[in-house]
Amino acid sequence: MNGAQSLIRTLVDAGVDVCFSNPGTSEMHFVAALDSVPEMRGVLGLAEGVVTGAADGYARIAGRPAATLLHLGPGLGNGLANLHNARRAHTPVVNVVGDHATYHKRFDAPLESDIEAVAGSLNGWVRRSDSTADVGADAAAAVAAAQDAPGRIATLILPADVSWGDGGRPCAPVPPRAPKTVPETTIKSVAEVLRTGEPVALLLGGAACRERALRAASRIAAATGAKPFVETFPSRLERGAGLPAVERLGYLAEQVAYQLDGIRHVVVAGTRPPVSFFAYPGKASDLVPEGAQVHTLAGLDEDVPTALEHLADLVAADVPPVLAQSHRPELPSGDLTAQNWVDVIGALLPEGAIIADEANTSGLLLPGATAGAPRHDVLTLTGGAIGQGMPVATGAAIAAPDRPVINLESDGSALYTIPALWTQARENLNVTTVVLDNRAYAILRMELQRVGAESAGPKAKGLLDLSGPDLDFVRIAEGMGVPATRATTAEELAEQFRRALAEPGPHLIDAMVPPIL
Amino acid sequence: MNGAQSLIRTLVDAGVDVCFSNPGTSEMHFVAALDSVPEMRGVLGLAEGVVTGAADGYARIAGRPAATLLHLGPGLGNGLANLHNARRAHTPVVNVVGDHATYHKRFDAPLESDIEAVAGSLNGWVRRSDSTADVGADAAAAVAAAQDAPGRIATLILPADVSWGDGGRPCAPVPPRAPKTVPETTIKSVAEVLRTGEPVALLLGGAACRERALRAASRIAAATGAKPFVETFPSRLERGAGLPAVERLGYLAEQVAYQLDGIRHVVVAGTRPPVSFFAYPGKASDLVPEGAQVHTLAGLDEDVPTALEHLADLVAADVPPVLAQSHRPELPSGDLTAQNWVDVIGALLPEGAIIADEANTSGLLLPGATAGAPRHDVLTLTGGAIGQGMPVATGAAIAAPDRPVINLESDGSALYTIPALWTQARENLNVTTVVLDNRAYAILRMELQRVGAESAGPKAKGLLDLSGPDLDFVRIAEGMGVPATRATTAEELAEQFRRALAEPGPHLIDAMVPPIL
């Protein structure tokens, strides 16, 4: 058994049985070894941002990591932005980065580069496998490290000769570090805060955005009057009819200031106190209202759902959660607008949908339109590095082949990782992509004003304009093997969305939605 | 004057007047400042790999750096692979990477990441601008550092508040470090080697791949019998009728062994001794023939053209260079093959063309077919990170608007940075892209055999297969605003290639060329 075979065997035994791959020469033994371990599924991406974003989406839904297969430092570099998003989501990911043979490195061949430096920038776990006999143990350690609470990026650097050498030994799974139990004293002290009667915001993140924790938070809110909020960009938010409807904290500092107006205590559960996404001249970075106290119920590496349930038992013993009623918007008619397209989605969203949300400014009104839709998951842009929606949708669809995946994608974000469409076609994934096509980096037009750069002239505005030439997403999608249509009215969007959901395989709808601003 | 304005003013004064840009919120003041410095041209790329590859292609042709504008660590990450290629080409590039405001960093906002670590992996120059008053001086230092012989990647990290703050002071250009003069003793000792009459290979790289040095090398070869070779992946190779025709060292170790068979001395000029691109089980990494001696005429940071001329004066005083005669292949007919498509290019290549060559396996026979074509430049994949051809062609066309740019692009490499086509359309660049469409990662099929992974089964082969679904490059190009056609015969390719060259603006030809292997 060679090193590559022992690696794949170990990954599969540890529950990692999907490998999103963009290999090169130094990974050819890994590729060859795929056929020796039938349980491992290799999924090809035509660019590394597709591969890493798909691993993120996969793990958010599957609850366990996928592997990626990347070609030396440049391959890791190309995948870095979506690994950044995965890091911010605390998604477990196991990168396998091929490298030159150990004895070849000193020759500084053209593809030689500092892989450790790039991998290290992810603040996760990095190891270089030095010998074939150790690859199995290194792989088991990588899978465990990725899953150590709350989840991280683990990068295993695999020299080509370590991969092709004989003497590989598969290794049994290593248990990851489980979330820590929140001390009872902490829960009691938060209960005291809630009993003061002073205005409290309960900020939920990470695992607190899933049903069990949301129900507990809803009970606490109902009993104490605390206002619950979900963090601005949750990794995976469970919502819809039958689940508590919890408002998300806004993207803009002004929104958050409004949402937290008058709050005296911010109780944080599974996330951190709110900060501004960007800095703006003369505006605060820290979004905790002045004079308010912060109380941490559970940190990122703690068992937040259990802590919330204990807290609910203390302060809301017999109070049930408030659950969203089933309610859908009317199907709108007429030309598409930033206001009406969300109603089409809300009216037609199927049961059990997974929404990969990179609609950005176009999606501002989406939460309201879908709050009473059937139960669904929302996967958001956790790290702010755009180009994440299509890959995340791809990975989510691999993880949940029986669930409809809907990728709401702004045109400005779509081009970074557009080859994800090809992988959707090749794997026949049930992904419906709706491109919100406003022909601009609309969010940057807004930001240009918000940062106080009022003097913007034609050159500046030109850099935020995606027309001239217009991108034709229908042709691009068709070129990658994904059937596509264009919608300019709400009726067309509804008809095309229905059809896309009814037919198996991927579809793309180019929705001509004017800018909201 | 704010920091951004002082930065752009300084760049322009130092000769950097093109900025390939993919900005975000933290770069909005830089974007706004573009209108205050009319000489600076901002060119939008829809993905960072386009931006960094275009900066590489631009500088290879313009002979001076472009700037890039990138959005924090993830933007730099997305651009890293083509910066790796630029690093290997010793291309001067000035990255401006926006970052959070200095006071915002401690909040670890979603886009916070370790920019220095990623930039540092490029072994170039990295500086963070700490105050608005220093931005001008920092920018001047960056431009100089990028141009210090032999050229490198300079990365200036620009916090948002340093950019928007008042008190910017433009700085006069700082002279870069010129190439060092090669000592006369070194030149004389190489002359002695050449006079031994023993078999000598003269390996040319970097600046030695331009006309002046090539003429000197040709004289030396003619007078002494030394065999001249150009390094495998030159940054910019001048060739064609009227210039010395110098064979490139092969990509495969076996080719190099054949080329250097019997050589006793390897004289290195502007590059390093030959090494294998990858390691293979049981094969050597060092491609200097056993027993041969290596002599360095000029290192990367030395004035290699002058050294070659001095050497030629010593050993070939009255010997003229041997120049390629004008000669073109006959236009072929019939179905396209890996053998005949290169003859179409050779037959029709226009005077003064710039070839961005990422044809990979499909381009094996290209050098022979174009050796007698009119004078042209070839820009190659210096760092081995695929996805470089389209961006490099884009940048080259910005640098030389009056020259025809021809991008020979393998299908396997095309998808990484395909949004380059949109920039070509927006800027109306005279780029003719010929996609060599064999529907496979053909080079990896070859490598799978070469690394000794004979056991490859259907899963392994599937990961190297780009069919299912077939990519339709005509639709993809049209979707990005580039007119496109498909050629299946040599006649069609010739007709379409002629038309593309005759019409202004970009064109793409999807050439259905079967795999060579």
TrEMBL record, chains A, B:
Give the record's keywords alphabetically: Thiamine pyrophosphate
Extract the Pfam families matched here.
TPP_enzyme_C (PF02775), TPP_enzyme_N (PF02776)
Q: Does the keyword Kinase apply?
A: no
State a single Gene Ontology molecular function. Answer: thiamine pyrophosphate binding
- Segments forming domain Thiamine pyrophosphate enzyme N-terminal TPP-binding: 1-106
Q: Enumerate the Gene3D superfamilies for this protein.
A: 3.40.50.970
Residues in domain Thiamine pyrophosphate enzyme TPP-binding?
376-510
Domain of life where this protein originates: Bacteria
Q: Does the keyword Cell membrane apply?
A: no
Q: Which family does it belong to?
A: Belongs to the TPP enzyme family.
The protein, known as: Acetolactate synthase-1/2/3 large subunit
**Which organism encodes this protein?**
Prauserella shujinwangii
* Lineage, top ranks: Bacteria, Bacillati, Actinomycetota, Actinomycetes, Pseudonocardiales
